[in-house]
Design a protein that fits this description.
Layout lengths: L6 E12 L5 E12 L3 H4 L13 H5 L7 H16 L3 H15 L8 H27 L4 H20 L4
Antiparallel strand pairs: 1-2
Helix pairs in contact: 3-5, 4-5, 4-6, 5-6
Length: 164
């Protein structure tokens, strides 16, 4: 053991790898020492550096010692992970609700496309705007969830009404 970390010593071997131009490079060695670093020595603190390293449960049960800006960003990431998968369904329904109500007409199909694209862009724009505001101030939690429910109601209204 070196520095209280286990290590591997490899002898008479080679290493093959591809570079960015897809050329194979070979490295022949007589002796190579690889030090295995434990998780405790690799992490100098308990804080995780990337938001993707947190589980959803960890995003909502945060340490009080974190700075408020990082706490807000982590909470916003947790709400983002809960809300965004639901948009798969609502954006599909919102886009199709305009087309499902009207009979197919080969001559006038530009207007439903424009209405559906503009409504989808508006919903996604509002979602990311509210998520950005939520990372600064946690009082925008209601607005980020309300955007989803308003998009549901609008898609139902588009489906029930003749808007074109």
């Amino acid at each position: 053991m070196q520095n209280n970390n286990p290590f591997l010593e490899l002898r008479n071997g080679n290493r093959q790898a591809y570079d960015e131009n897809d050329n194979m490079t070979k490295l022949y060695f007589e002796s190579c020492v690889i030090e295995l670093i434990s998780e405790k020595s690799a992490a100098t603190s308990n804080e995780k550096s990337d938001f993707n390293e947190y589980y959803i449960g960890e995003l909502f049960t945060l340490d009080n010692n974190l700075p408020s800006l990082k706490r807000n960003k982590l909470m916003a990431e947790g709400h983002q992970r809960l809300i965004w998968p639901l948009y798969n369904f609502i954006l599909t329904f919102l886009g199709l609700s305009v087309f499902l109500r009207q009979p197919y007409n080969r001559r006038s199909h530009a207007k439903p496309i424009i209405i559906s694209v503009l409504s989808l862009v508006a919903v996604v724009f509002l979602h990311f705007t509210f998520q950005n505001l939520l990372s600064r101030n946690l009082s925008f939690v209601f607005a980020s969830y309300a955007n989803f429910f308003v998009a549901c109601l609008v898609s139902m209204w588009f489906y029930k009404q003749k808007v074109i």
